[in-house]
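FW: tagging you since you asked about this chain on Friday. Here's the raw sequence from the shared folder, copied in full. Didn't touch anything.
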Amino acid sequence: MTVVLALAGMGYLGYRFDVVPVPSSRCSPVARFDAGDRLVVDLRPTAVQPGDAVLVRDAEGRLHLVVVSATRDDGARIWCSADCPSCEGFDSAAAGWVDRRAVAGRVLLAWVY
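HL: got it, structure written out here
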């Protein structure tokens, strides 16, 4: 029984969370993370708040690391930006409000690999 529970727990962790690297060949668009960091990402966040670092998918399907600056329509839309001035990134100033369904995950923690 213990083995079954352990396997079920591992399956849930794999379903819910992922480790995503910040490319070491580029700068990080979010100031609190550095190139080469590993990000633990909640793939199924129930909510995102201003200040959260998230991965959003653009219209072409590419993932971008951004910070949520504001929410609108009861959280159905987010305004996001890259907060590192020395690194260009996805920004709602150019793209407009982003549908909440475009959020691919919320960053929980990061560590240097």
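FW: The longest helix spans residues 2-16.
HL: agreed, and The mean pLDDT is 91.
FW: great, closing this out.
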